[in-house]
Amino acid sequence: MGGLAFGMLHKIVIPAIVLSASAFAADISKIPFETAEGKETSLADYKGKAVLLVNVASKCGFTKQYTGLQKLYEEKMDDGLVILGFPCNDFGGQEPGTIDEIVKFCSNEYSVTFPIMAKVYVKGEEQHPLYKELTGEKGAFPGDVKWNFGKILIGKDGKPVARFESKTTPDSAELTQAIDDALAK
Fold first, then answer.
1. Domains of the chain
2. Is the pTM of this model over 0.90?
3. What angle do CA 88, 92, 97 make, to 5 degrees?
4. Catalytic residue among 50, 51, 60, 81
5. Would you call 60 a catalytic residue per the annotation?
């Protein structure tokens, strides 16, 4: 008998959400955000680079992903990858520190050298405009960020490419393939 029998349990794997560059028309490149040092910047400052946005937290079960993110950054930065860490205290109060404490933690505990931005809200009423454009009702990837270490890949053309949830590790095949594809374009 072909097919699956009822009652069998199967692991369902939900792939990353991937868009074509033309599927999302909003220009997110000029939406301002701040660096950890308080300098205003935007994705326009990373024109021609693939950018991985990651909402990070210091006291989370996924915090150890900093190690993999740093390794990924070191391996791909010469190819044009930038990782931007956006500290966020939206989930379980797992990023309660000041920006200075966060930067010190990232440097001392994980030797992070990729840019850390100022703290933001990635969901809710105070959601940062960049995340609203990306995950809002009319965003590239509608639906709230679900937890710390969610990842959104922006192509070298400044358009959103893919979204990955927290469980997708920095060395996962799906994430590294998406980055390689974005860097090749």
1. 17-184 (3.40.30.10)
2. no
3. 50
4. 60
5. yes
